[in-house]
Amino acid sequence: MDILAHALWAGAGVALARRRWTVSPRTTALTVALAVAPDLPHMLPVLWWSAFGAGSPAALAGYAGAAPSLEPALPEAVQFLSHHLHCITHSAIIAGVATALLWAWLRSLWIPMLGWWSHIVIDVFTHSADYYPSPVLYPITRQGFDGVAWNTPWFMVLNYAALAASYAWLFRTRRARAGNSSASLS
Ligand SMILES: [Zn+2]
Predict the structure, then answer these.
(1) What is the Cα–Cα distance from 88 to 81, expressed in whole angstroms?
(2) Ligand 1 center–CA 167 separation, angstroms
(3) Which one, of 117, 79, 77, lies nearest residue 97 by Cα?
(4) How far, in Å, is the centroid of ligand 1 from the Cα of 90?
(5) Of 38, 147, 28, which is closest to residue 94 (Cα–Cα)?
(6) What's the 38 CA to ligand 1 centre distance in angstroms?
(7) pLDDT in tens, 56-68
């Protein structure tokens, strides 16, 4: 899914969670940041190559918005690093190990991890066999699930309509709650 929608869904999830649990602004920011973060590291090798190597800003833009088999030609090492960084940040196995290690260290679940998990779960279903299937079981396999590619026009419309409806509902019910509490205080 696109980065903006990842951030918005994570934000909606946190807003809903805050109705039941106390979530600090720091945890909120980190959760949303981790929901976006998995799509960034694989850009770094291409960014580096564009800034310091033979690459260009046009190649970087081409890579960021690429369609399968239309990617700009990249040096082998850049291609290799980008590919594996993308696999690492989209793997439920890697995220599972990271979650378990942090859990053991902190002796409780580190809540912002749920942002990363939201990204992995959403991407599994919003990529298709012919549109970068999400490598959720990397490093065991780089195969992914055949879902609906997030950039399919009807899906984009549906996704943002669902986001708009979710935020409208969150906003409306928040106002209703605020109204109720002020009513009960007066
Ligand atoms: Zn992603």
Answers:
(1) 10
(2) 22
(3) 117
(4) 6
(5) 38
(6) 6
(7) 888 888 898 888 8
- pTM for this structure? 0.90
Cα-to-centroid distance, 2 and ligand 1 (Å): 7
Give the Å distance between the CA of 96 and the centre of ligand 1: 16
Q: How far is the CA of 103 from the centre of ligand 1 (A)?
A: 24
Token pair in block for residue 33: 């940041």
pLDDT at 176: 63
| Residue whose C-alpha is closest to residue 78's, from 38, 36, 50 | 50
Å from CA of 149 to ligand 1 middle? 12
Angle between helices 3-17 and 25-36 (to 10 degrees): 150
Longest dimension (CA), the chain: 69
